[in-house]
TrEMBL record:
Basic residues bias (residue ranges): 83-102
One Pfam family here: MRP-S33
Family under the similarity heading: Belongs to the mitochondrion-specific ribosomal protein mS33 family.
Protein's cellular compartments: Mitochondrion
Record's keyword terms, sorted: Mitochondrion, Ribonucleoprotein, Ribosomal protein
Keyword Mitochondrion: yes
Gene Ontology annotations for the cellular component aspect, listed alphabetically: mitochondrion; ribonucleoprotein complex; ribosome
Source domain of life: Eukaryota
InterPro entries: Ribosomal_mS33 (IPR013219)
Protein name listed in UniProt: Small ribosomal subunit protein mS33
Region entry Disordered, spans: 78-102
């Protein structure tokens, strides 16, 4: 009983030491409990810059006059729709609220 049990404990300790050394050498993260860890996601390369390069740069956003004119057009269109009764409903008076009250 004593000899076999001692061998198991000794081999487990050696294996644990090897695993720790391997993790230290190769820069791996130890997870002896086996729980889910976000380390895999944090290790990934960031790809936001790459995605941003797919889209052309919008020159209009630099010019405040263009932005002001677009905002004015949007407000005038909204005012025209409100006068015709087609504007957006007040908060809590929309289609979903009407459906809930039936």
């Amino acid at each position: 009983m004593g000899s076999g049990n001692l061998k198991k404990i000794l081999s487990a300790a050696i294996n644990e030491g090897v695993v720790e050394a391997r993790a230290r050498i190769f820069g791996h993260q130890l997870n002896p409990s086996g729980l889910k860890s976000p380390h895999k996601i944090l290790r990934m390369k960031l790809f936001g810059e790459k995605v941003a390069q797919w889209y052309p740069y919008d020159i209009k956003k630099d010019d405040p006059l263009v932005m002001a004119r677009e905002e004015q057009e949007r407000l005038s269109k909204l005012e025209m729709l409100k006068r015709r009764g087609k504007g957006p409903p007040k908060k809590g008076q929309g289609r979903r609220a009407a459906k809930r009250n039936k």
